[in-house]
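ugh ok fine here u go
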Amino acid sequence: MYKKFTNGHKTLIFLVFLIFNMVSLNKLIKQLSHEDPKKREGSILALGELRDERAVVPLIKVVNQDTVENRTYAIIALSEIADHRAIETLIYCLMDNEEKIRLAASRSLGKFSSPQAISALLISLRKDPKVIVKSRAALSLGAVGSELAVEDLMSESKLEHPASLLYSIDSALKMIARNNGYKDLDELLQSVKEKKEKHTEETPEVEQIKEKEELLEFPTLWPYIRKYVFEQLEGIQTVLSIESDEKTAEKKISDILGEKFWKFVSFIENKMDRTFSQYQSDLIWQMTWDVSKPIRTEIFQMIKDHRTEVEEIDKYRSWLDRIEEEKDAREELKGAPILEIRKVEEIDAEKATGADLARSISGDIEGIMKKYSAWKKEADELEEIAEFGIDTE
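structure:
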């Protein structure tokens, strides 16, 4: 984060701050109120690096009341922590008078896979007075990767915008295509077109807008969706392994989320006291899939890291075998060993096998899911509910 968003001097300040102060989280948070802006800056940068969710509320306060520079750093720090509680504040920042603030917010909202973020970014894309902010909003929509943004991006791509903005919009559409498994942009656009035609047959476009607004007005929709995603994926480590590639893992996640989805839809229908159209049900599924994105991303990266580790260990083992063979050959020729092998202590070639790493994947996924356990608690605090009723026969 800091290499991207600060110059070399700022990076040095942060490194010195982190190395020589070694302060606790509580002290860092307390220092956010320090009278010296540089002290506050150091704490903001450190909190972003720590990515601890306990810093979210204090950082939100900084966004609302510090210098422009520190507010910008706090916005970036919130994006590094990526806790959904920051979304409302970041959306509000898109209306700030300061271009730096709007630019940082438009970039940071790309870390949040929620329709609130998508809607706010689309408004920024259309209405922000600065092309650079519009472009950043477009790229963030691509980073979110939701098909919900495709039609609006396509509409903007047909308008007379500056070349830089049109390039960003095109890049965003290609990112959405890639992130959703389409071979190219044409395939994505064809899929969106077919879905729209299907929905239009069942629900006129004017009605679609109205039905979407009805869903978004339901105040507890997002806590419920987050809770559903967490509860369905909580035990996912039992069905994934290190052999899973990204497509296999994504398919399993999709199957798990879809297994009880219709019971979840029924639960929301009861809460809203209405019956959903097919279009609204499809919207809820897209929202559910989007909300699961940060979990999916972490799981995919973890599997990739484990696979790389296994490959490195295999290479190391092959290297040891080759050295042993060369040593044996030279001993036969000269009658005495001329090369001693000293095994690297960090990697035990006999114990650190692929199977061991495959077994450890379960604990790592459990750790990932633990980060999102607040999603369940949040909905429970809003209202006493019993597993959405989805586990009952």
